[in-house]
Write a structure and sequence with these properties.
- The chain is mostly helical.
- It folds into two domains: 46 residues, no CATH class; 103 residues.
- Helices cover 84% and strands 0% of the residues.
- The chain is built from six helices and no strands.
- The two termini are 66 Å apart.
């Protein structure tokens, strides 16, 4: 019979090689000096490893983990509130942009009404002059609203991180 593999010897030493295969391997080690010495080496190593203990966790381990969880939860809540607060600002900006885009088609919408056509004829140059500033104004308004929301929601996070 050939020599046992290292895996077989290690399994035999730690007791995981059982049954007929384990019995045959043990009988081989009793008759083979080389495999027997390897088995005794692995058995001694296994005994030394069994005496090792797991290191104790730091005394503030639980508090540190809980603080990290609180910070992460606060970040998630802040992100959720920011997204929920941004929805109305986005809707308002979208409404302003759509209104600006529809401003181009106003002449076609009021063709049938003479009074509105007259008003539109008088106000047309004013709307044409205001169209670009209206789009820029809608964008700036959105930027101001989002900036205000981000600065408003930031102190909640800052209080949680300062307290930990």
């Amino acid at each position: 019979m050939s020599h046992l593999t290292e895996t077989q010897l290690q399994s035999l030493a730690d007791g995981t090689l059982r049954g007929p295969e384990g019995l045959a391997a043990r009988e081989h080690c009793e008759g083979c000096v080389e495999c027997g010495s390897e088995l005794s080496l692995y058995s001694a190593l296994n005994g030394q490893l069994a005496t090792l203990r797991d290191p104790e966790p730091p005394s503030d381990f639980t508090a540190t983990v809980l603080a990290a969880v609180q910070v992460r939860e606060a970040q998630l809540v802040t992100r959720k509130h920011t997204l929920l607060a941004a929805i109305p600002a986005f809707a308002l900006a979208l409404f302003a942009m759509v209104g600006w885009a529809l401003n181009l088609k106003v002449n076609q919408l009021i063709d049938g009404v003479a009074v509105l056509r007259t008003v539109w004829g008088a106000m047309g140059p004013v709307f044409s002059a205001v169209r670009v500033p209206l789009g820029i104004g809608a964008f700036l308004f959105l930027a101001v609203v989002l900036t205000a929301l981000s600065r408003t929601l930031r102190p909640t996070y800052a209080r949680l991180t300062a307290g930990s």
